[in-house]
Amino acid sequence: MKVVKKVLIGLLIILGLLQFYRPEKNNANLREVTAFEKETKPSAEVKALLSANCYDCHSNKTEYPWYAEIAPVSLWIGHHIEEGNEHFNVSKWNSYSDKKKDHKLEELIEELEEGKMPLDSYTWLHGEITPQEKEALIAWAKKARGAFEIQ
């Protein structure tokens, strides 16, 4: 019993100390998605879906929920955002070549079709996107790819 008590006290101390460590936040002055939206021409419905479900992890500005201030959740969310931006960052859309833009949209379609996006950990807290919303995103991305197809 003494060992369990010591382990629990040790874990509480570690958890307390973790509260002082803050991962770097993804907080640019504004969520720059204009170039991305201008080139891909999402409908109002798709813009709303992107804003509500994608841009927090795939742009340079994240709207953090209150629980993102509590370790270890802050570390977990920070990692998700860092990885999301590493794979696809709409704020860097202008820096992508046409070939890369086409590839990013192709990956977006694949991730949605395979059910890999949004992440399960995201949907636990924010809810699923409906099959109709998923289809709207896929249809938009397929249409948007047409502008970047290499001849």
Quick recap:
With 151 residues, the chain is mainly α. It is built from 7 helices and no strands. It has one domain.
Walk me through the structure.
By secondary structure, the protein is an all-alpha fold. The chain has one domain. Helix content is 58%, strand content 0%. The protein is built from seven helices and no strands. The protein has helices at 2-18, 34-40, 44-53, 73-87, 98-113, 120-126, 131-145. Helix 3 crosses helix 7 (131-145) and helix 5 runs antiparallel to helix 7 (131-145). The longest helix is centred in the first third of the chain and has 17 residues, at 2-18. The termini are far apart. The model has no long low-confidence stretch (mean pLDDT 87).
Helical amount among residues, as a percent range?
A: 55-70%
Q: Tell me the fraction of residues in β-strands, as a range.
A: under 5%
Number of E strands: 0
Largest sheet: none
End-to-end Cα distance: 71 Å
What number is the mean pLDDT?
87
Number of helices: 7
Nearest-angstrom radius of gyration? 19 Å
Order of helix and strand elements from N to C terminus: HHHHHHH
